[in-house]
From TrEMBL:
Substrate binds at F112, L113, K114, E115, K167, F212, I213, Y214, P215, G216, G220. GO terms for biological process: polysaccharide biosynthetic process; UDP-glucuronate biosynthetic process. It comes from Paraglaciecola psychrophila 170. NAD(+) binds at T43, T78, E115, K226. The lineage of its organism: Bacteria, Pseudomonadati, Pseudomonadota, Gammaproteobacteria, Alteromonadales. This is UDP-glucose 6-dehydrogenase.
């Protein structure tokens, strides 16, 4: 496996050996194979920070080019509100060029897994968001997710745009918690309080909770930076000033200097600029 995820190798090997999992680069085969077509390609930041939809739309074109039966197209990539409409337009355009009467529906089904816990997050999701206004698509999605929906009802069905926004709202809320705690840590440092005591003191309130309130050198990873940025670009585009999200980004940007300012202070670099010359630093837990 080119990536490390606990439990993934065994799962892939078993299901591949038993014929339930097939890998192919043959797009036609992939499209003809299933009624449900998942789009789960990257949506990296474009030059201006908005989500680059070229890969999503390319897959939509591929599906439309090869489909020979009606399809449910499920968008699992994190995409701005309105993307399902763009996917629909793309598919319909190609079908029109093909002079095809085939029909399809586009469902939003955002993914909430964390890297490093992908398998368990996938098999035991907190919630399964299904954005659709089609009854048929909803029933198919319910059937698909039945094995992951046994111990309680986890499926939440809503309109497509709300589902698209739910994904950004979740990541932005978590990023906000982190930036808030980083702000508190900076205040604690200046007033002589210990942020670890504060963390435990506020986390014990179930309305706040212990999760995502660890201060550090700013949030990173594959999603928070790009997703907060993408929602900011969305708000800019609709002429709404998102003050909280912009502050979350500013605090995060500033926090990245934190580690270096500690190093500088520890080695008194302002007095001894060569103090770290030739030294080797170990950074634990850094993901590149
Ligand atoms: N990584 C996460 O933890 C995570 C969690 C939730 C949601 N997401 C979202 O899921 C989406 C994918 O993220 P990722 O981390 O898996 O990205 P990734 O870049 O690791 O993987 C995307 C894959 O899509 C393939 N691809 C690109 N264009 C293609 C095409 N036209 N046809 C077929 N394959 C194509 C790429 O080769 C690549 O293997 C993003 O929108 C991301 O925001 C990611
Ligand atoms: O209290 C905390 C918790 C996290 N982080 C940082 O936040 C970033 C994100 O961490 P984590 O959420 O564990 O990893 P991701 O794989 O980026 O997962 C996030 O992004 C995914 C992609 O959208 C979502 O699916 C997940 O629900 C969401 O947690 C990392 O830089 C962490 O160091 C903190 O600084 N303090």
């Amino acid at each position: 496996m080119p990536i490390f995820e606990p439990g993934l190798t065994a799962l892939v090997e078993k299901n591949h050996a038993e014929g339930r999992l097939i890998f192919t680069t043959d797009a036609k085969f992939g499209v003809e194979f299933g009624k449900l077509q998942f789009i789960a390609v990257g949506t990296p930041p474009d030059e201006d920070g908005s989500a680059d939809l070229q890969y999503v739309l390319k897959v939509a074109e591929t599906i439309a080019t090869h489909m020979s039966t009606d399809k449910v197209i499920i968008n699992k990539s994190t995409v701005p509100v309105g993307t399902a409409e763009k996917v629909s337009t793309q598919v319909q355009t190609v079908l029109n060029e093909r002079d095809s009467q085939l029909t399809f529906t586009v469902v939003s089904n955002p993914e909430f897994l964390k890297e490093g816990a992908a398998v368990s997050d996938c098999q035991r999701p907190d919630r399964i968001i299904i954005g659709t206004d089609s009854n048929v698509a909803e029933q198919l999605m319910r059937l698909l997710y039945e094995p992951f929906n046994r111990n309680r009802e986890k499926i939440i069905v809503m309109d497509v745009k709300s589902a698209e926004l739910t994904k950004y709202a979740a990541n932005c809320m978590l990023a906000t918690k982190i930036s808030f705690m980083n702000e508190m840590a900076n205040i604690a440092e200046r007033v002589g309080a210990d942020i670890e005591n504060v963390r435990q003191g506020i986390g014990s309130d179930p309305r706040i909770g212990y999760q995502f309130i660890y201060p550090g050198c700013g949030y990173g990873g594959s999603c928070f930076p790009k997703d907060v940025q993408a929602l900011v670009r969305t708000t800019d585009a609709i002429g709404y000033e998102s003050e909280i999200l912009k502050a979350v980004e500013r605090v995060n940007f500033r926090q990245k200097d934190k580690l270096f300012s500690y190093i500088s202070k520890h080695f008194k670099l302002d007095q001894y600029p060569d103090a770290i010359k030739g030294k080797t630093f170990a950074l634990w837990g850094v993901i590149i």
